[in-house]
Amino acid sequence: MRPRWVRPALFALLALTGLLYLWGLSAAGWANEYYAAAVQAGTQSWKALLFGSIDAGNAITVDKPPASLWVMALSGRIFGFGTLSMLVPEALMGVASVALLYGAVRRVSGAGAGLLAGSVLALTPVAALMFRFNNPDALLVLLMVVAGYCMIRALDGASTRWIALAGVAIGFAFLAKLLQALLVTPALALVVLVAVPGSVWLRLRHLAVGLVAIVVSAGWYLVLVSLWPSDSRPYIGGSTNNSLLQLALGYNGLGRVFGGDGNPGGSSDSGGGPGGLMGSAMFGGSTGITRMFGESMGTEISWLLPAALIGLVAGLWFTRAAPRADRTRAALLLWGGWLVVTVVVFSFMKGIMHPYYTIALAPAIAAIIGISVRELWRGRQFALPRVALAAMLVSTGVWNFILLDRTAEWLPWLRWTVLAGSIVVAAVLLAGGHRLGRGTVALAAAGLLFGLGASAAYTIETIAGNHGGGIPTSGPARAGGSMGFGGPGGPGGQSASDNTELKNMLTAADNRWAAATVGSHVAGSLELSTGTSIMSIGGFSGGDNSPTLEQFQSYVGSGQVHYFIVGNGPGGGRPGGPGGDSGTGEQITAWVQQHFSATDVAGTEVYDLTAPN
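Structure for Glycosyl transferase, as requested:
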């Protein structure tokens, strides 16, 4: 029977998590305008919702599968499209993730461990960042935690059902962010083979059931897209041949791991990527085993990573002689396998690696901290568990001091407090703090305070600040800490939200597309400020071969596009300018400039495609 304090404590944790993640949520505005425009399109067109189109005219999709967009767009259809209807579901996914992680850890190590794990997840800066954002990562993490919870339940019996449900969760996670969802599958498979009750053949059958569940729950959508006539659906953004499977295996799949397919990323030297841009902090920094601790990733996720690694090793050592189906060891294999595989892939992947991807590590770190602290604390009368606990605490204090020193002007007293407090608590524990009687509770509370204090402060600062743009980062504002994209006119030009004359022109147009422009950065801003459909030529950065010049000429000839807008921002369609491309966008721009006359609309170059020269 659970102690009476458990339920109120859980409700308090979830209420505080909800308060943190919902507080001032509208301050982020449209967050990532690329996905916000697709959400808006999904509220205007069911086909756009189904395929994840950037525009309601269904020219091209975002470069991800649409599962996360389905949730936000359906919310917009029910409550009306706006910032809150788009972002509240993301925040609630964070609360649900905390609740499910609590449940998974509680079933192994008790309510105290579950509450600690849930608290660590809720107070991880990158989690607070992304559960308040409209990128696909919130749904991805929730579904992976669902899979982890189901796998823990499979240890209790009725394994086939729970393993199948875990597979379904991973399959739908694939429809949120493709191959990244599969990084946890080695850990899930390991638990099935090692710890699930039953004979070897029964466990192999369970493994096959899980694999089939993944294939079916992800494959139905791949089949749907493949069988749907390509001329009656939007082009699959980010792909080279209008194929979602190619997108998964190319640009947004193996290309992220091995580089290529439009994936310049961090390099193994200190110089970063091409021109120093793609190897910069916003694109993962240099590859290598220390990447998760570097300038780009460290303050997002690594606050408790050293402690989690120590706890994982200690936990596996102390359970080395346990029976095959030991639940504690099974849980450590699950969350530890999740952590190790993801860290290794993220550390060495050669393609694009944004700092916020590290939210995928947060549940594993949190679960390992909860389980290992609880199990080591239970054995505190012995020297080795106390040494392991002290090592976890001291490593956290030292590393958090280093992380806080990277923003030395922000709360300068905090790093010294955390460092000194963790060392003192660890010293008392080693000196016999486990024999303090009632004072032991105060010692444990102090350890938790100094262990979580820095991460919690960074999380609160993340929530208090405004973290927008395409590549958000957590914590206090830093130079180059986030990357947004300008509206039409680019540097020095007028943004879409301020260009009243341009907006009036677009809202007055009744064509399938009010305008077309190269790349999504101008298009997304205009769609959100006018509610009209803007064709994003070439997709996200203007590099996709859609539409072709011939297709665009056909659209113009049949009166489906009213204006063409040239911008100076990324993918703006100005040959040779920032983000310019040598493919279809440049060809279309040249054709428009040859056959139509330009008009200056408050600093923006606009062509009326209904009035050829």
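The beta strands are 513-518, 534-537, 561-566, 596-601, 604-612.
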